[in-house]
Amino acid sequence: MVPFADFLAGALLTLLLPIALLLALVGWYWWFSVRVPETADGPEPSTPPAATNPGPSVPETLPPEPQG
């Protein structure tokens, strides 16, 4: 009867250890995700963005018109 008991113990360990590991990981992930604060409310208030500038900020000086 000992070979049957060894087979039964091995079969149970093969089934129960991965299931226990999976349950432990799922439980840890769920417990960790509950402790994380919600961040879906949006970004924190900060300084307003700068106004857009359509052109260069330094005035351009063009060459003089040709005479003639």
Radius of gyration: 35 Å
Secondary-structure element pattern, one letter each: H
- Sheet having the most strands: none
Instruction: Indicate the mean pLDDT.
Output: 79
Sum up the overall morphology in one term: rod-shaped
Helix- and strand-based class?
A: mainly alpha
List the helices and strands and how they pair.
Layout: H1 2-35
Question: How do you describe this structure in short?
Answer:
By secondary structure, this protein is mainly α.
Question: What does this entry look like structurally?
Answer:
The chain contains one helix and no strands. It is mostly helical and 68 residues long.
What keywords describe this structure?
single chain, 68 residues, mainly alpha, 50% helix
